[in-house]
Structure formats: structure tokens, C-alpha cells
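User: Hi! I'm working on a homework problem where we have to compare a predicted structure to a textbook description. Could you give me the structure for the chain below?
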Amino acid sequence: MNLKLLKEILRVLFVYDPEARLDLFTHFPRLKSFFANRRNFAILRTFGDIIFTCLILMGLFGPQDPSSNIMLFISWGVWWTSIVLSWFFVGRMWCGVCPFPGVGRILQALGLYRKKLPLQTFAKWCAYGATGLLALILWVEAVTHMKNSPFLTALLLLSILLGATIFAALYKGQAWCRHFCPMGKIIGSAATMSILEFRPLLDKCRGCKTFACKRGKDGIPGCPVYLGAYAVKNNLICLVCGHCVPLCDRDSPRLFLRHPLKELILNKGRYLTCAYIIPFLMASQISRFIQERTYWYQSFKEFFGGLEIISYSLVLAACFVLFLGIIRLGAHLFTFYEDELFGKFSPMVPVLVPMAFTGELVYRLDYFLKELGNFFPILSRQFHIQTFASWGFVVPEWLIVFLLKFVLVVGGIGATYVSWVFYSKEFEGLVPKKNFFAILLLIWSITLLYLWLV
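Assistant: Happy to help. Predicted C-alpha cells:
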């Protein structure tokens, strides 16, 4: 990599310019070759399917003592933390190799499915359904302390697998991934702040009559989520799976490097998916931190007879109402949330997005770092390999706290930057200065709440 290219990469990443992006396929041809060769993704999916199957089997039939079953650490520590980290760098690329559609792909390869497209009504109601499923998963995780139960964790994986398989039998492609997957919705929302975007060169798409990227050709299936490269406008739906790259004879699909906050700023909270997921995700994070880290929560739970299902649900509901109120207050402070051409939008949602997803990273990273040193001792107990029994260690508490607080501060800085761009550029002259400072006060009050709980 030459110095000029390095400077261009740094400029794109750290200097906000809505027009600036770097075509990675042009500068790194091997990257394009990787996407063009479907075998690469097939190998990654096969590897993921094998690991996924092993995790389920260990959860169902392995030791149920958390200190003797490594599947918990791999599932909640390695797997989930890696997914959250991937949001910031590769967007929804995880979805391109996700193991959940694995059984469905086999059924479709054998022709055991209805060769129909999903109903149009799915597009209208899927955000509600997927957000509801995500809310259910996060709620069940907390009230059942699922991170301590191999069996319940395996049931969760099987439940999502079952949903993906049923939809694969009912509809062609990956209808579950496009419309109802709760993981897909949260990853799609998080991918709006990825440093990568998969987009077409629309000049090359003009005049295309085959739409092979969407429909497929010569027996090769097209886009698994019925999108096609020419229709990709944001990171919410595209799986970055590379299906369209070898199908397009016009060389249109491209992978671009961009400023990580570009899409948030341009969309301004216009999409329904983010508007529902962000307040609930932040509410669930604060609720989980309260549940696990505060003394008063235990007294609160005892007041309801020790019933976690009631005490946690009330805390979660209160936090959800709080963040809905913050989003409405933020819209009022921005004074501008509807445009004749752009339509209605919610400017406080993109402001909160960096905090929501750094908050989720902190929650998952906390578990990963605290359990990391137990990996080999647990492996030793589960598989009776005495060599690993003494390989345990403890990550220093001060280091964990420092890393978690650093990530939270970065999230607060990201939220501040988005609000500043709105104030000084996107809504220039429309937001009173006192309102802008009130928005900053909201941002850092939330950040301080996170820091206090961590």
C-alpha cells in the first residue's frame, strides 16, 4: 500500500464528506476475486454450520454445569462478541455466512420448498415482527439468565434455526433473513455505522435488461434476499454475500470504504427498523446493567417475591419509556423532523445509534473478558484433558473497566459528532444554539449513566 492510498483511506475514514468513498475492488483486486468466487463463502458457511451444530449438541447433551461446558463461552463470549464487533467494520457480512439458513439451503438444493416469493405484506409488517422477536430474545436472556444455561442457549439457537428453516420451505431464497430474523434486524441497524458499504455503480446498471444480480442466470441463483445490487441504497438489507458480483456482466457491484457515520447522517433516522430497535436496545442494556451491577435491584426483586420476570420487566419497561421520551425530546430540540421531499424522520435516533451499539459491545465484551481466562480450565473439565487444567488466568479488573469505559466514551463522541453535523451542516440555521447544548447535555447524561453502571 503506497503512502498516497493510505492518506486517502485515513481521509475517508476520519473526515466527514458525504461524497467521499474509496472503491476497494479497484485498489484491491484480490478482494473482488474473493467475492466473485462463491466457493469462498461456501467454505465459510460450511465451517460455521459445523461449529453451530457442535454448539447445539453440547448444549443439549453436554454438561449443564456452566463451569464444565465450553459452549456458553463460545456462544455468548466469542460468537456474539465477534458479531457485535463485525458491525462496525464489515456491516451485514456476517449474515452472508450465517449458519441459521443452513438447513433451509439444503432443502432448497433438494427442491423441497415452495418456489414462491414472500408476500408483499411482509415488507410492511416485518419490522414490527422482527423487533418483537428481538425484544423477546433479550428479555428471555435476562429473566432466565440464559448465559448460565447450556440447554436454554441451545434451545434459543434451535428456535432461530427453526424459523429460518420454515421460511426456507415456504419461500425461495432467504425470506427469514430479509423479513423476520431478529438478529438480521439488529445487525442491519448496526451496519448503518459500518466503515464499508456494498453499492452498485448505477451508471453501469442503466440499460440492463437481465437483472441477473437479482434473478440469477444459467442456473445460478441471484440475490438471496430479493434485492439485487442495483437496488442497494443502504446497509439495512444487503447481506454483503457477493452473490451478485459474478452474475453482473457490467461490473457494477462495488465494495466502498466510507466514513462510519455517513449513512446515519444522510438517513437522519428515516427508517422504521432503527426507530424501534434503538430505544429498546438501549433500554435493555441499562436494564441488564442494573440487574447485574446494582444492589438496589435485588431489594426491588425481593419486593415482588424474588420473581425476576416481574422485577426485570418493570425496569425494562421504565427504561424503554425513558428512551422513547429522549427520542421525542431530541426531535423537539432539533425543531426539524419533517420535510416535503424527505418525509418524516427522527433525528435523535441516528444520534443515539453510536451509543446503542457501543453499549451492546460493552455488555458482550464484559462477559468475554471476564470469562476468557476460564476457557482452558472449562475445556479441561468437559473433555477430561488434564494438560489444560492449569492454563487459567484472570484479566485484570482495572483493564476490563478501562476498556469498557473507553468504548462508551467513543460512543458518546460519535453521538456528539452526529449531532454537531446536524446542527452545523444538515440543519444549518434551523436549530437554536441553546437547543444544541441541550442535546449535548442529553447525550453526555446518557453516557455518564452508562459509565456509572459499568
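For your comparison, note the following. The beta strands are 22-23, 196-200, 253-257, 338-339, 343-344. Residues 397-426 form the longest helix (30 residues). Good luck with the assignment!
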